[in-house]
Amino acid sequence: MRCADATVLLFVDAFDVIIDADAKTILTRFFHHFAHSKGARIVFSVEPTIKSWPDASLSDYYPPVTGPQRFINSGLFIGYAEDLLRLWEEFLPQASEADDDQQFYSRLFVQREVRERYGMVLDLDSVLMQNYTLPFMTLVPDADVLLPVRFEEDSGRAYVRLTIHNWDSMSSDRCRRSRNLTVR
Q1: Which of 122, 149, 173 is the last residue of a domain?
Q2: Which of 122, 148, 168 is the last residue of a domain?
Q3: Low-confidence ranges of the chain (pLDDT < 70)
Q4: pLDDT tens-place string over residues 17-61
Q5: Helix (H), strand (E), coil (C) string for 29-66
Q6: d(Cα 120, Cα 79) in Å, to the nearest integer?
Q7: What is the number of structural domains in the chain?
Q8: Pairing label, strands 6-12, 71-80
């Protein structure tokens, strides 16, 4: 994607990503909510837990936030190409130390100097990116969850239907009353 002579890259993990906006909308949100207002150069999606993956020892080094999401989800990020290329050139030689991309980006993000030098921020309010783990992890903390993507026949719009396999682990009375939840 290009805007005002600045190439912007959108990285998506093809396994579980639904793009629900056109390029113009995505760029407008990126520039308005992050690049222009916060000086951000690279924006990562977030998730509510780090647990033991990729490295639970990093959780204390993340900046404090007021909401439930505070950890990088590297399956979805956007940023200026020049900054991403500089970041990769500087740190990819160290990538062999990391088990995967999630750990690689987490290790960089917790370093304040790196975070500030590259303008790395998290999309804490899900302005650009929404991971489906947030609403359901708090709703169904210990249940086995399957979220298959489906498409409406008439409009082709994507939606996700929550199917709970371990219903007995539900702790919320509200959840017990409704076994299916559809997100459009």
Answers
A1: 122
A2: 122
A3: 1-5, 14-18, 50-54, 96-99, 131-151, 156-184
A4: 667 788 899 999 999 999 888 899 999 988 877 665 667 788 888
A5: HHHHHHHHHHCCCEEEEEECCCCCCCCHHHHHHCCCCC
A6: 9
A7: 2
A8: antiparallel
